[in-house]
Amino acid sequence: MRSADAQHARRRRRPTARTVVRVTAITLVAVLALGAGAAYAVYRDLNANITNAGDLSGLLGDRPEPTASSSASAPADGRSGSPVNVLVLGSDDRSGANAAIGGANDGMHSDTTIVAHISADRSRIELVSIPRDLLVDRPTCTTKTGTTIPAKHDDQFNNAFAVGWDRSQDLATAAACTWRTVESLTGVQLDGFLLLDFVGFQAMVDAIGGVPICLTRNYDDPKTGLHVTAGQQVFDGQTALQFSRARYNIGDGSDTQRILRQHDLMAAMARKVLSSSVLSNPGSLLGFARAATKSLTASDGFASLQDLTGLGLSLRHVRADHIVFVSMPTVPSRTHSGRVEGVPGDAALWSRISADQPIGEADGDGSDQPQSDGPAPAPTATVPATTAAPSVPAYTPPGGLLTSGDASSTCS
Predict the structure, then answer these.
(1) Residue 377: inside a domain
(2) In CA terms, which of 9, 71, 84, 120 is 20 to 30 Å from 188?
(3) Number of compact structural domains in the chain
(4) What is the pLDDT of residue 76?
(5) Is residue 162 part of a domain?
């Protein structure tokens, strides 16, 4: 278990709840809890909240055909049997209501970037954060009007989103530039993107009555307005957002340290959402679902509530200790002050994601362990030999793993 700012108690051996970060499945529960008479109206309301960025294929260049989404009337996992890689973006939008939270600014950046990998058998979720200060070779991008944005060597990672927005004032273009940069950096083929802004995150936390979390130190950050003391806390939406954004006056001021705090907060938030106090409260469920969908922008295949709910329901049996939070390993840049660079071990991390193999080790008995990277056993006389899958190097994050099974919600 890795060390971080929040205190982690001993990992649970056998979580029995259907513990998984599944906003969409919870949305369905909220609709059902309201009764059949109101179900359609609520479904229509939530579905209309999601902003569809449309088909981005023209902005992404040549790529394999995506797995088709289900057109069935009942919510179904249209990508059943295939791994899913989703680009999750937290936008640093400073316009409209977001300006009152983060301060007015004409530009827009991706303040948080996560590659969410969902295994083909729907038994694991790996959430890999990419630091915004990472130096990358940004590839060319194309705007919706056909304008080409030139590539750039050693650019700051989150400039991909910013330059896409600045050249087009279009979220789809900004997301597509980040999408192309992530695929160029990692070699992982993405299936879609989801984007959430400040207002949405804050409203989601408030809708569930706050997030309990244990802090091992005081935090004072005048830039974000964060002022909290060590010990047991329950963050409201504003404080949770301040905690996830705070950086310059906390610790070493790096984005990598902020990512660790964000992981602690996301794990604590997942536990609260799936607690009995939320799951048994239709009002909280509906409020959370409305907040999540109202500030959500998504690409085709992820922009309908039916698609999202089908995927969410397929994850209902995922164990808490199989939801893993990881940060891409980096080192301080030798040539650019305040920036970070990737390390050779990054290739093993992204290879595991591409090959749909677990990161690190899972808890439990041998049946729950990741597949061995060693040679396959020799076939018996009654089992025909098959072609072995390519060997994928093992990978465990240098700082260890954080999962949703780690208890950082309460002090002990």
Answers:
(1) no
(2) 71
(3) 1
(4) 76
(5) yes
- Give residue 44's pLDDT: 67
Assess if residue 203 is contained within a domain. Answer: yes
pLDDT tens figures, 110-125: 888 999 999 999 999 9
The two structure tokens encoding residue 249: 């006056």
Q: Which domain holds residue 34?
A: 23-65+76-358+395-403
pTM for the complete prediction? Answer: 0.77
What is the mean predicted confidence (pLDDT) over 379-403? 59
**Above 90 in pLDDT, residue 358?**
yes
| Residue 8 lies inside a defined structural domain of this protein | no
Region 336-357: what's the mean pLDDT?
Answer: 93
